[in-house]
Amino acid sequence: MSTKSNSTDSRRQFMRKAGLTAAVATIAGPAAALPFADTDSPLQNDDQRKVGFAIVGLGKYAQEQMMPAFKESKHAKITALVSGSPEKMQQLAKQYSVDAKSCYSYQNFDSIKDNPAVDVVYIVLPPGLHAEYVVRAAQAGKHVLTEKPMATSVADCQRMIDACRKAGKQLMVAYRAQYEPFNLDAIARIKNGELGKLRYVTSDHGRQVEPSKDKADEWRVVKKLAGGGSLMDIGIYSLNAARYLTGEEPVEVMAMESTDRTDPRFKEVEDQIHFTLRFPSGVLATCTSAYSIETVKRLRAFGEKAYLDLDPATDYYKHNMTIGTAEGEMKPAVKEGNQFAAELDHMAECVLQNKTPKTPGEEGLRDIKLIMALYESAKKGKPVKV
Ligand code: NAD
């Protein structure tokens, strides 16, 4: 048999296994089988009761991404708002039909305990404030969804977990990529062995942080509020992706930092961190995060037979998958979905079905422990066992 027909056969075999039928193929098996919010049993919510969410912190991400996503959610609705700005809150209350009685300041927030329309408190504040508001929400007897990074210290993460456990309430960390169809499809393909044995993963997340131009970047360069620099804010996507793509927990980590401390943005927080994770199976992940480059949000998983590339991997609305072998590249036509609505629906389902979220507090704690080990490694210039 000629080399050409051998390679054609192996390409056909690979494509058949990957569920691909042409160079630019239509949707393959794994994604088609994946429920949107990755729930095993689709929720039977016959009484059509929607779970009520209070939004705490009406900033850029809350207003531009999450609040509009409630319109596409099946099981979640906005029933309360919490803000330090009464004018902004009044305007958003009108837009989202929230009762004036369900609008709170940070000072009277604890009285939310008396509001039966609120099941879940969703914390969209800077990370340095997450712990305080998660604990207060749990003490008010509410389930909690909190933004990433979960908190700025391991002790705070533990305090948040303990408070929700004591109150008998669910705690979920808003890792939207774990509810996003392209990332779920990639996880399924790796699990199915479509790439062969996984050998290594790379992931890069970077952008220009611009506190002088964007109000939402002001807290990102203040250590007390952000906990750290690019690693805490966006490197966490690389770190979390390495964990969900491998399905393993790292045993050793190593990091190197490069920050121009004369740049006024980086007086308190780091710019670049490059890091390596060693997983028990022998898989290595090499990841980067940076606050001084053009935007990048990508990942690549390398197996013995093929690689899978997502670029962008963790965008809000646009994702692109490429699978490559020695024979060439193909682009499975995975369907875009609203990851924000899927995340909200998952939280709502966990409340309605009394089940632990797929990304619980413990998932957020794991990343913060690893981030602390990475900072330690960068400081000491040595690998750290975890
Ligand atoms: P933002 O600055 O636009 O919003 C923060 C809000 O917190 C503002 O309304 C601000 O007024 C309020 N706030 C209350 N007390 C404050 C204080 N002491 N200092 C500063 N702000 C205070 O920021 P954002 O980009 O909307 O980020 C909010 C949260 O959402 C963060 O935890 C961030 O990591 C997370 N986030 C997540 C994603 C994602 O894709 N999952 C994307 C962006 C932001």
UniProtKB/TrEMBL annotation:
Domain of life (superkingdom): Bacteria
Domain Gfo/Idh/MocA-like oxidoreductase N-terminal as annotated: residue spans: 52-175
Keyword Signal: yes
A Pfam match: GFO_IDH_MocA_C
Domain Gfo/Idh/MocA-like oxidoreductase C-terminal: 189-386
Keyword Magnesium: no
Gene3D superfamilies from the UniProt entry: Dihydrodipicolinate Reductase, domain 2 (3.30.360.10), NAD(P)-binding Rossmann-like Domain (3.40.50.720)
Keywords: Oxidoreductase, Signal
TM spans (from-to): none
Signal peptide segment: 1-33
Protein name (database record): Gfo/Idh/MocA family oxidoreductase
Organism: Hymenobacter jeongseonensis
